[in-house]
Amino acid sequence: MRKMFLCLALAAVSTASWCQSDARPEILILGTYHMANPGRDVYNMQADDVLAPKRQQEIAQLIEVLKTFHATKIAIEADVGSERATQQYSDYVAGKYTLTSNETNQIGYRLAKEMGHKTIYPADEEGDFPWERVANYAKANGMAEKFAAVGDTMGKLVKEQDEFLHSHTVLEMYEYLNSDSISAKGVAFYYSLVPYGDPGDYAGPDLLAAWFQRNIRIYHNILKLIDSPNDKILVIFGAGHLGWLQQDVADDASVRLRKLAEFTGGR
Questions:
Q1: CB 70 within 8 A of CB 231
Q2: Which of 35, 91, 113, 118 could form a disulfide with 96 if both were Cys (CB 3.0 to 4.6 A apart)?
Q3: 4 in any annotated domain
Q4: Which of 68, 78, 73 is nearest to 100 (CA)?
Q5: 122 and 86 Cβ atoms separated by less than 8 Å
């Protein structure tokens, strides 16, 4: 028992000395909208054509802003260990692959190539999302109308984001999506599902737990990319993950959280 406590104490000292160092790995989470409209979320935006010349110029503007973070590695929302994404990137660098409208291509691949990165890093982990279970609980317990109102709140937020995109530049859209207020609304949505359940059927809490599990696994994959206290990891994931991944970084004393607003002047 004394040996175990000694090991824990040594680990605490090691962590404390690392945290007190000025050189800590930095992680910037970039919440993104889905440029290719895959329609995989419960509520989905309808993005316009990012391959159009105007949007391409705007993406180039965003790329220039992201360069100022000086990322040493770029993690993207693709299945961890995916050879497809890394092969696509390799082919793109070699001039044998044409970028699609997906944000992993338009932001991740483009930025990595312009910064001379040898590879890209898939970091996603799929998880359960028992939305129907929560809906069924609400219906069976006289809460269907209340549950519909929760959905309407998220639907309204997605509609607002859709309208914002169509009247602003890509950079402005990312500033908006990555603002603390929008991030907080996304997190609050998941917590609004917690009341839907009872002992023996924790439908809402289980959904939240599943979402947290997926994000903490993603965060694990991000941490595995760190080789040096000088590493700077840019993480490009759907905006629904933003608040959760940012909180993971903020709660981890061994790394430093960075935000997009620091590089845009918080306009």
A1: no
A2: 91
A3: no
A4: 78
A5: yes
Pairwise CA distance, residues 248 & 181, whole Å: 18
pLDDT (tens digit per residue) in 193-223: 999 999 999 999 999 999 999 999 999 999 9
3-state secondary structure 174-216: HHHHCCHHHHHHHHHHHHCCCCCCECCECHHHHHHHHHHHHHH
For residue 28, what are the domain limits?
23-264
Q: 110: how many CB neighbours lie within 10 A of its CB?
A: 18
Looking at the domain assignment, is residue 116 inside a domain? Answer: yes
| Number of domains making up the chain | 1
Residue 14 lies in a domain: no
For 155-163, which contacts have Cβ atoms below 8 Å and span 24 or more sequence positions?
A: 155/43, 157/43, 157/185, 157/186, 157/189, 158/43, 158/44, 158/45, 161/33, 161/45, 162/45, 162/46
Is residue 68's pLDDT more than 90? yes
In-domain check, residue 10: no
pLDDT at 47 (0 to 100):
77
